[in-house]
């Protein structure tokens, strides 16, 4: 069987179904076989007809005594069948499926799996799945349930996958090395493929799932390991001379003492910069943990070694923020700090450090010798954008690369650090600078909304404090009518709730100049309240802002809420975060209640990963590489096991041509900036 054959060429598929299957990312035979069920319906127990009760979902087995079409008063057709077993007789009803009269034959035996209901005063089975007792695909067993799309049901998928498996006359070759399979006691590939789709019982299904979960994470670990290996083998960098005297002088001249975590991260980065292999390090720390000053130290060292630095930020607001901070830290030492954004329009050449958005990859940013590239909130940039910045480095040898430092305020769960970010060295700022107070956080139910508004007004009027109000949407949505939109809230709050205060509006569709003007007004204290979309998640530093109100808090991941919360509490005043939600109970409510107790980003990220999956931490729409088919990023034991196994195979991967071919075909999206 050719696993790379197009599904369109399969029996009973064709171009129309192939187009629908594409929505499920199924294009080849292999994709179809690897479209695993996400749960099973247990139809294995056969119930006698006289024992079934309304409300139950059961399987019965019997002979069709009679089947006919019947018209309702409104002209609709219903199909009625009488089915008999040794214990009695039962009526089965379907709606608008007249073809069943030709398919189901009187006198023949079938299994029916479905829900028992009342029809008038008698018990019936309503719209069940059915099949001949000669077959066992849709009934009489553990029945797989798949992710579906328009025109592709689980029943359709079961039929095609069952047919495919029956066509496997000779066993398919397993690409996993035999030594790995034996050592890990993995189930045989062909048996696992049958058992994952059509298991004889739950232990068999679980054994198959374990096999494919191992395979998925093992491939991911190998891919990451190969990237790290290639980076270390193929690339050269400027080996910076680390002048300890100058470094200590830089630290002494700072207007504050570095935390232990900042000192540790600085040592790790300086050690990397002193090598002739390019640094490839990720610096993770909560908002306000002091990542920018670490970046400033690395930039200073690059300047001492006669090379330039670039810092690429995802938004103009954040680029401006970095520009102001780095200019403050570095200009007095003699460094020329420049800002280049999409709206600045200047051609820049004579600089020591260039800060900007994706404008840094355009022609007008000319580097003479780029020794250090810093990428902030790196998961917001595509691989191509990062690669283009590195290509512009203008280094003396083709093999050379600038040192790469990526920074993020997004907390990284340990399991994801061990897999997706396994090719990056990781530095974590796990403590905050002294003086930063814990932000008091409350979940606010609907009935306390007006009291919260009154409290905000008092704080602003009595203490000259400022507030953020975050809305999930820019404009109202017909499909999400209960979700607050920034534009509508701005009108409502300006006129009805806070007519005596000065309000501003900030959202992603505004022009850069408009955004910058609003931010300037807020920073200078000309606005009391800023109503915004989550564009403020990164890059806004307003020390006098002490209140963060978040509408529709249940719509955000815990990590995103934590980052938004970190936009206040930058000064010495006590700060607050109010989480507005229509939910007052249930899982969603309990999840956001965790923010009242937990103030550490990494703990919230682990909790979000457990409760909602990686897409909620990083944004699934942008980062499909986080979607595992069958494994889980929460399974630390399996992740560590696959990491060890990949480490054993990596040096001799060339000995396994099938594994090499699989890796080449299944290249996942790169995480690292090259």
UniProtKB/TrEMBL annotation:
It holds the Pfam family Helicase_C. InterPro entries: ATP-dep_DNA_helicase_RecG, DEAD/DEAH_box_helicase_dom, Helicase_ATP-bd, Helicase_C-like, NA-bd_OB-fold, P-loop_NTPase, RecG/Mfd, RecG_dom3_C. The keyword Aminoacyl-tRNA synthetase does not apply. Its EC number is 5.6.2.4. Residues 272-429 form the Helicase ATP-binding domain. Coiled coil: none annotated. One of its GO terms (molecular function) is ATP binding. One of its GO terms (biological process) is DNA recombination. It catalyses: ATP + H2O = ADP + phosphate + H(+); Couples ATP hydrolysis with the unwinding of duplex DNA by translocating in the 3'-5' direction. Plays a critical role in recombination and DNA repair. Helps process Holliday junction intermediates to mature products by catalyzing branch migration. Has replication fork regression activity, unwinds stalled or blocked replication forks to make a HJ that can be resolved. Has a DNA unwinding activity characteristic of a DNA helicase with 3'-5' polarity. This is ATP-dependent DNA helicase RecG.
